[in-house]
Amino acid sequence: MTPRWRAWCLSVLGAVVVALAAVVAINALVDPFQQYRLATSHPPRFYKLHHRFINPGIAKNASYDTVLVGSSIMESTRNDTIADACGGPAVNLSMPAISASEIRVLLGAVFLAHEPRRVVVVLDFNALAGAPDARQEDSGPLPSYLYDANVFDDLPYLLSGVVLRKSLSVLMNRRDEEFTTDANAPWYWADRVAFGRTEVLRGLDLHDLNARFRQPARTLPGMRASFERNILPLLRAHPHTHFDLVWPPYSMLVWLDFRQRNQLDVTFAFKRYMTQAVSALPNARIVDLQGHDEITGNLDLYRDLYHFAPQVDAWIVARTCANLDGEDASNVERYERDLRAKLVAWRPPAEGGVAWTR
User: Each residue of 201-220: pLDDT tens digit?
Assistant: First the structure.
């Protein structure tokens, strides 16, 4: 190699190193996903497609006593709503289509930085479908390197061109992508949709209720394996934190869908299993809100089969933190009988009516 060629190679290498160092410096300084600090020098930006990149930073850097974790059905719960119901500062870390394995990883990030007084986990049955480590990649990948305590594996974040574009947008005060800035309700979506019977029934095939969501079939061994891999170890590892495992008030159409797909028996069998699995844990409690037909039978409170209006979110948190609707071995079979009877008696309403909007 000639001296001139060697000098050229070194200059190119030096330029690359300087450029990469500049990218790292900008991304670390601006930190658009709040991995190292909560945003103070500029309004925070919560990008709706980047829950899984932003939530670990909130988990590590926010101040809270109570954590709410759930899927998109709980995203429209404001932090101060949780705080008012449960006492003390609170944070909502819900993510769309969250799987049980993602709940484990997310709460792992929480416990790296905090020992919260209370953790409210709103469980979806579908979060326990598939293999124990299954993730809902259709809602975006989970960057596991952001959920641990090792800053030396953060280079994919610090060198990311996507992150750099967001950092430059912050520095230049550009709004070239959709985001919200409300740290009290970063993932709130209820103001962008309509609720009501008409919305729920629009285009819905009552003879194939799963056609829209295409939820997978579940098995009892699979659900148990997922629970024992992802949820049960968390309860055992953190005895000083109170865990509420909440069954949310799905609309009656969901239960009708379960009946159509032969998923009723496995669902109730798993609920019975879970009461046994947590019965010996003094720091865990099951909350079952699925028999409240004043909610589940009123389609004006929903936007589709699964997603309900924000006042239902607030109702869920209020009843949970008031220690109501507990389910254990003494009443789980009665809860099941009551819900089965309500499903037999319930009939979907005729399409029509006025949609409730907010």
Answer: 988 888 888 888 888 889 99
The whole-angstrom separation of Cα 34 and Cα 54 is: 7
pLDDT lower than 50: segments of the chain: 352-358
What's the confidence (pLDDT) of residue 17? 65
Residue 257 belongs to some domain of the structure: yes
Q: Does residue 2 fall inside a structural domain?
A: no
Nearest to 36, CA basis, from 24, 48, 47: 24
Angle at 62 between CA 60 and CA 64, to 5 degrees: 110
The pLDDT of residue 168 is: 92
DSSP for 243-269, please give it. Answer: EEEEE----HHHHHHHHHTT-HHHHHH
| Torsion on CA atoms 214, 215, 219, 223, rounded to nearest 10 | 160
Is residue 87 within 8 Å of residue 65, measured between CB atoms?
yes
pTM above 0.85, yes or no: yes
Domain holding 277, by residue range, is 54-160+178-357
In total, the chain counts a number of residues equal to: 358
Domain CATH code at residue 314: 3.40.50.1110
CA end-to-end span of the chain, whole Å? 70
User: What is the domain count for the chain?
Assistant: 1
**Residue 290 within a domain:** yes
DSSP 8-state secondary structure symbol assigned to residue 191: G
Q: Is residue 344 part of a domain?
A: yes
pLDDT tens figures, 90-102: 999 999 999 999 9
